[in-house]
Design a protein that fits this description.
Number of helices: 4
Strand content: 15-25%
Radius of gyration: 22 Å
Structural class: alpha+beta
Helix content: 25-40%
Number of domains: 2
Distance between the termini: 75 Å
Number of strands: 10
Largest sheet: 8 strands, antiparallel
Low-confidence stretches: 3-14, 246-287
Length: about 290
């Protein structure tokens, strides 16, 4: 959760994807509201709730926090391993992989080579103060899918109440499991409760219909782990949608999505048809 130095970007041969610099923007950048949260083991916690603005490799994006266990300061940065979708399978092997991060963690950090399910343990990002037990792999996968659904639906929403409720729903699902009813947290803004419950229900319904196909374009911004020994714990982690950059105050994407395949195929067919017509006309003229 968020309560309120630049890092050298590296590329590791251990991973197919890349390790780049993540930096949370200064206070005030984003679309959020202050909400006081109460839950088992969490009393009167004052959190900035909604979407924040951060840079990934120098490009600005809207992000949601996906770690109810940890805090981060405005403007803080770290080397992040990106390229895994939030709902990718858990890391295999299940131990983090060493990556060179000069100037951070003594020059070596550790990252899961998998999705958020890798970090959903009682020692890392799955707090579940009520149950206190680690979830099964099926449960961690469903949590990841529901988080992906909520992030994909609301990351570029401009309504402050909507994104605040979505952030609370994400924390609630991660904290209390995929069958969460939205009652684990209570909030200073009572108007958010019904929105949170509605968001969680929508995510559960979507998962029951589509399973692991939910919003696999939402990427996990994974924080570095400082030790190779269990228990592992990330500093903080987030989600974003690559290709959709944010304006300085959050909100709608400033980059247009790539055209769908049908549109591309139609454009290609038209272009080929024009070329063939020109070729025929040239042949007729030459004869």
């Amino acid at each position: 959760m968020l309560t309120v130095g630049m890092v050298i970007a590296v590329v590791s041969p251990s991973f197919a994807d890349s390790t780049v610099t993540f930096q949370l923007s200064p206070s005030g950048a984003g679309n959020y509201e202050g909400v006081v949260i109460n839950a088992p083991g969490m009393s009167n916690f004052d959190a900035a709730t909604g979407t924040y603005v951060a840079t990934v490799n120098g490009v600005s994006y809207n992000v949601f926090c996906v770690d109810p266990n940890d805090e981060i300061n405005w403007g803080q940065s770290y080397p992040t391993y990106t390229g895994e979708t939030i709902n990718a399978p858990a890391s295999n092997p299940d131990t983090p992989v060493a990556v060179s991060t000069p100037g951070v963690n003594g020059g070596t950090s550790y990252y899961y080579n998998g999705g958020l399910a890798s970090a959903l343990t009682t020692s890392d990002e799955y707090r579940n103060a009520a149950a206190g037990t680690a979830p099964s792999s099926a449960v961690t996968q469903e949590i990841s899918d529901e988080v992906g659904y909520l992030a994909g639906t609301y990351l570029n929403n401009t309504n402050t109440n909507d994104v605040a409720a979505a952030q609370l729903a994400i924390w609630s699902v991660i904290d209390n499991g995929p069958s969460d009813t939205g009652t684990m947290f209570t909030y200073s803004d009572a108007s958010l409760s019904s929105l949170v419950n509605s968001d969680i229900t929508a995510a559960q319904t979507a998962y029951s219909q589509y399973g692991n196909d939910l919003y696999n374009g939402v990427d996990w911004i994974q924080a570095p782990i400082s030790t190779s020994s269990s228990p592992y714990n990330h500093t903080q982690s987030f989600v974003y949608i690559p290709g959709y950059s944010s304006n300085p105050n959050g909100g709608i994407p400033t980059q247009a999505p790539e055209p769908s395949f049908p549109a591309f195929a139609f454009s290609l067919a038209v272009a080929v048809g024009i070329m063939m017509a020109i070729k025929r006309r040239s042949s007729q003229t030459a004869s």
